[in-house]
Amino acid sequence: MKILFICDIDGTIVPQEFSINEPNPEKAKSLKLSPKTLITLHMMRSHGDLIFLTGRGIGWQNITCKLLRTFLGKSKIHFHNLKGEWSMEKYLDFKLKNIKKISESYDIITIIDDMVEVLEYIKENFNQETKKLFLMHAKYDPIEEDMICYRIL
Question: Which of 27, 77, 102, 130 has an alpha carbon 20 to 30 Å from 67's alpha carbon atom?
């Protein structure tokens, strides 16, 4: 069985320091993966493939690759490519389309995101007939310095 973990970045494995409507590259440059988060991500990677699916645009590639340098070559990063004005509808569609494409050759898929709206949208629109899908609502907790799973949808 082929196992895939698809993980969001901002708000999930690092603090949510900015929004898509108010990007802040300077804050993004200062973000680092905590030791606990690194252990969690390596554990995922040891059990299957790990892909990062982010709302960060391609213009943030250098900053993001620096943040995830430990995983480069072992994991892919998919950046958003939304055209025009950002909207939640476009963002949800971007996530769903990429997840469908990325997960085609996998049997078990776990999606980890800090936004419940994203997970609920995937749950409603992803055809699960031939796949086992786990949706994990997780957020980065600065006190624990790790991503904390709040629930499985």
Answer: 102
Could you write out the DSSP letters of every residue in 69-95? GGGBTTBEEEEE---SS--HHHHHHHH
d(CA 32, CA 101): 29
pLDDT per residue as tens digits for the range 84-113: 777 889 889 999 999 999 999 999 999 999
Thinking of the domain 3-152, which architecture would CATH place it in?
A: 3-Layer(aba) Sandwich (3.40)
- Residue 40: other Cβ atoms inside 10 A: 20
Question: pLDDT tens digits for 44-61?
Answer: 999 999 999 988 877 778
Residue 38 CA to residue 13 CA, distance in Å, equals 9
